[in-house]
Amino acid sequence: MRTGLYPGTFDPMTLGHIDIIRRSCALVDRLVIGVAINRDKGPMFSLEERVAMVRAETDRLAEETGTIIDVHPFENLLIDCAHDVGATILIRGLRAVADFEYEYQMVGMNRQLDDSIETVFLMAEAQFQAIASKLVKEIARLDGDVSKFVTPAVHKALLDRFKA
After folding, report:
1. Which tens digit of pLDDT belongs to each residue from 115-128?
2. Does residue 154 carry a pLDDT above 80?
3. 111 a catalytic residue
4. Choice among 17, 30, 50, 155 that is catalytic
5. How many structural domains is the chain composed of?
6. Does residue 58 fall inside a structural domain?
7. In the annotation, is 17 catalytic?
8. Regarding beta strands 118-123 and 68-74, do their DSSP bridges make them parallel or antiparallel, or are they unpaired?
9. The domain spanning residue 102 has which CATH number?
10. Which one, of 84, 56, 66, 79, lies nearest residue 28 by Cα?
């Protein structure tokens, strides 16, 4: 069984993330969505909330694609997480050249840690290239409409968070 790992903070999950997940399902038999516990980023949503959002959005994709999709919170090195879940492929989404520069460095480091794990880059579809979780949160915080960037459930969660 070919297992891929798609890591991120998913704070919040966007349509861009869902696009990468959907397309990743064509590459693997099992896809693990690694939800990072990145304390340095100071996420808006708790780990539990982010994991629940990802599960809710990916359950439907698993049924549609026939791919096993698991959600796995992690705080260790990405390579160690890959070992923990049995992944041999790391899946990374790219939106722009700046993403590639950072990811290129990460691939080099990860290859030094374990050269048996391959990294696959998927370019975001054109309509999703500008979507960034950070920008979605900022627009929502300023009472802008983010419904074009997230699912209805995530949109509601953002509205609820900023009303609170």
Report:
1. 999 999 999 898 98
2. yes
3. no
4. 17
5. 1
6. yes
7. yes
8. unpaired
9. 3.40.50.620
10. 66
